[in-house]
Amino acid sequence: MAAEKKAGAAQKKHRSGTTEARTLKRKRDQEDLGKLQEAVNELDPKSPTIKAFTDLPLSAATAAGLRSSHFETLTDIQARAIPLALKGRDILGAAKTGSGKTLAFLVPVLECLFRQQWTEYDGLGALIISPTRELAVQIFEVLRQIGRKHVFSAGLVIGGKSLKEEAERLSRMNILVCTPGRMLQHLDQTAGFVVDNLQMLVLDEADRIMDMGFQSAVDALVEHLPKTRQTMLFSATQSKKVSDLARLSLKDPEYVSVHEAAESATPATLQQHYIVTPLPEKLDTLFGFIKSNLKSKIVVFLSSGKQVRFVYESFRHLQPGIPLLHLHGRQKQVARLEITHRFTAAKHACLFATDVVARGVDFPAVDWVIQVDCPEDADTYIHRVGRTARYESAGRAVLFLDPSEEEGMLKRLEHKKVPILKVHVKETKKKSIADQLQNMCFQYPDLKYLGQKAFISYTRSIHLQKDKSVFKLQKLDLDGFATSMGLAGTPQIKYQKGGDDVKRIKNASRAALSSGSESEGEGGDGKKKKDEVRTKYQKMAERVNQDVLSSHYRKLIGDGSDDEDADFLSVKRVLGDDELDAAADEAGAAAVAAKTVSLGKQEFIVDSHRREKLLKSKKKMLKYMDKGQKLVFDDDGNAHPIYELQDEEEFKKQGPVEILRRQFVDTEASRVREVDVEDKQLAKEKRQEKKIKRKEREREEELAAAQAAPKAQLEGADGDAEDPLALLRSLPAPGGGADSDREDGPPKKKAKKWFQDDSDDEREKAKKKKNVIEMDREPDTLEDLEDMAARLLEG
């Protein structure tokens, strides 16, 4: 009993000690929080001594996250914006691309929620809105790095995934990074998602979010948010319009700009050039540039997704020698993220892209930014070239301008303080690919179709541009442009007059894409129209991220309801059912009167123009014509069919079948024997003829050798008589070395061996003994020499 009391007392003491420790920790945290708040209140936001993150009154968790991510020194925009944001002021931040604007609003977001001791039960505390999915993913990754020591929950809402899966986690998030359309969809449709406690609203690339393409989505989104909140807007080109600020309910915002007083709106380490190239030569110039920079990392901007797909597919067939990638808003989210990751990790690559990656996206070590299509304004140009020369690194940019665009665009860039120089392409670097593109368009109908859509898309973008002093459609060589794309002819386009809604039409597809809706057939409230009847191909066309090279694209009906180019490719008249029936009756009445035509032994009824045309084709009617009969001629010159069958009755009159068969076999056997004898005799004659020819050839060779050899002469007074012993005297003497007396060449050397034994010596002695001929006396007469020669030959 006493032991149990002691154990209970010890446990009680332990619990009391744990409670006291928690109380002390909570008390220390409150004291630290109070000190942090006092430091923020005493902070001078315009102090010139703030140059590092350690100079700011930050929480320990944020400071540790920044150190772990190797962020130490403040950039200009961070040094001016973060102190003001820590004090709760609304901010309009403008700075050059790549100047570190992301940390300028992420650090205040973490600090604001930390000082208010925000928990998951308090709901959504901060909302960060980005115009593109790629930029939203990048912001979220930076937030994860610097906020790793905090206990806040953060989420990424950009579409591409199930709306239901996102809604299940949405209510537990403290910080959300999102795109405008997808966020608005959750605010309208997700039950239990409350934003009444929102403390901070951040708009990155605010000028793009607040333009006419996202205007309706932003206005509807702001209506759901509380009025008492802190708002921050950041962009490389900031909007200061009163109407925009009133829409967001900003209260006395601080305008923070770090490049207005500078000489240029772009980084000083960025080398900017432009090339004047006519529209038909743009693709040739681009291909030549890529071939000359295979060891570089290049981003190529085009005006539309269809152009991106056409240029990517065409250059992929041409194989310039560098990895090619393409990125546009019509791709699925998984594909967009994968391509972004591949290009980020690549050392050498070329990315064809639309303006979906023109803002804020940080691709490391980009060497070149090429703008094949002229940007719509100077702000877009600044954002595009900002993909290189980031964080004080070097970079180069080239802008392709048609001669009609040069003067107007240069004035816009000069007004924005953008230094740009004119350069020319070397003649040796120019490469013409028009013939190759034309050949590919003939071989691949899908590529031809894609080229036609790209041409229409480019022309449409020029037609809808607001700045007509730069974009002059009438001065563009569209026929030459179509030829340079490999098209056999210029696609016919029907234009509509542009009005006040031109900007809205141009950005309609982008706004729809940002909502993340997986179906273009949805209405404004996300519900499908129940009374609308759609065909199979119309349903297939409603897929947002379909592949234009798929087979069903060639089967689409042309009602124009799902095609963004419907305003330009429209039929003059659509026939109804009654009109179609009437047209069919008229066609039947106008048909060719039926008539009968004889061809050979066959008769044909002609009741249409098609059959009449077929009857005039000799190739088509060849199978119905009498082709005649093939004949053979016997020895007497009489013609017979090549296959002639005997009458059955006449065959039976000749006798029994077995006797006829035996007679036929005997006849054929005797004929074969006779032919065999003739063949053998002919073969024998051929062999004899070959033998005679061979002997004649040998005699001719011997005669030629005898004439070439020196003649042996007998010693005499006259010196003309032949010496009959000369040949025999030239033979080797007994025991002498015959080889040593020859004058026709040196003696042959014997092959050396790596080893030698006694048996080899014995064989050599026996061989020498065998070759020795013993003579009793010196040969004097002809008989002695003949005897010696015979013995040599026998030996």
UniProtKB/TrEMBL annotation:
<keyword id="KW-0067">ATP-binding</keyword>
<protein>
    <recommendedName>
        <fullName>ATP-dependent RNA helicase</fullName>
        <ecNumber>3.6.4.13</ecNumber>
    </recommendedName>
</protein>
<feature type="compositionally biased region" description="Basic and acidic residues">
    <location>
        <begin position="771"/>
        <end position="780"/>
    </location>
</feature>
<dbReference type="GO" id="GO:0042802">
    <property type="term" value="F:identical protein binding"/>
</dbReference>
<feature type="domain" description="Helicase ATP-binding">
    <location>
        <begin position="82"/>
        <end position="256"/>
    </location>
</feature>
<keyword id="KW-0378">Hydrolase</keyword>
<dbReference type="InterPro" id="IPR014001">
    <property type="entry name" value="Helicase_ATP-bd"/>
</dbReference>
<feature type="region of interest" description="Disordered">
    <location>
        <begin position="671"/>
        <end position="786"/>
    </location>
</feature>
<dbReference type="GO" id="GO:0003724">
    <property type="term" value="F:RNA helicase activity"/>
</dbReference>
<feature type="compositionally biased region" description="Low complexity">
    <location>
        <begin position="704"/>
        <end position="715"/>
    </location>
</feature>
<dbReference type="GO" id="GO:0032040">
    <property type="term" value="C:small-subunit processome"/>
</dbReference>
<feature type="domain" description="DEAD-box RNA helicase Q">
    <location>
        <begin position="51"/>
        <end position="79"/>
    </location>
</feature>
<feature type="region of interest" description="Disordered">
    <location>
        <begin position="510"/>
        <end position="532"/>
    </location>
</feature>
<feature type="region of interest" description="Disordered">
    <location>
        <begin position="1"/>
        <end position="36"/>
    </location>
</feature>
<dbReference type="InterPro" id="IPR001650">
    <property type="entry name" value="Helicase_C-like"/>
</dbReference>
<comment type="function">
    <text>RNA helicase.</text>
</comment>
<dbReference type="InterPro" id="IPR025313">
    <property type="entry name" value="SPB4-like_CTE"/>
</dbReference>
<dbReference type="GO" id="GO:0016887">
    <property type="term" value="F:ATP hydrolysis activity"/>
</dbReference>
<keyword id="KW-0547">Nucleotide-binding</keyword>
<dbReference type="InterPro" id="IPR011545">
    <property type="entry name" value="DEAD/DEAH_box_helicase_dom"/>
</dbReference>
<keyword id="KW-0347">Helicase</keyword>
<dbReference type="InterPro" id="IPR014014">
    <property type="entry name" value="RNA_helicase_DEAD_Q_motif"/>
</dbReference>
<dbReference type="GO" id="GO:0006364">
    <property type="term" value="P:rRNA processing"/>
</dbReference>
<comment type="similarity">
    <text>Belongs to the DEAD box helicase family.</text>
</comment>
<feature type="compositionally biased region" description="Basic and acidic residues">
    <location>
        <begin position="671"/>
        <end position="688"/>
    </location>
</feature>
<dbReference type="InterPro" id="IPR000629">
    <property type="entry name" value="RNA-helicase_DEAD-box_CS"/>
</dbReference>
<keyword id="KW-0539">Nucleus</keyword>
<feature type="domain" description="Helicase C-terminal">
    <location>
        <begin position="282"/>
        <end position="437"/>
    </location>
</feature>
<dbReference type="GO" id="GO:0003723">
    <property type="term" value="F:RNA binding"/>
</dbReference>
<dbReference type="Pfam" id="PF00270">
    <property type="entry name" value="DEAD"/>
</dbReference>
<keyword id="KW-0694">RNA-binding</keyword>
<dbReference type="GO" id="GO:0005524">
    <property type="term" value="F:ATP binding"/>
</dbReference>
<keyword id="KW-0698">rRNA processing</keyword>
<dbReference type="Pfam" id="PF13959">
    <property type="entry name" value="CTE_SPB4"/>
</dbReference>
<feature type="short sequence motif" description="Q motif">
    <location>
        <begin position="51"/>
        <end position="79"/>
    </location>
</feature>
<dbReference type="InterPro" id="IPR027417">
    <property type="entry name" value="P-loop_NTPase"/>
</dbReference>
<keyword id="KW-0690">Ribosome biogenesis</keyword>
<dbReference type="Pfam" id="PF00271">
    <property type="entry name" value="Helicase_C"/>
</dbReference>
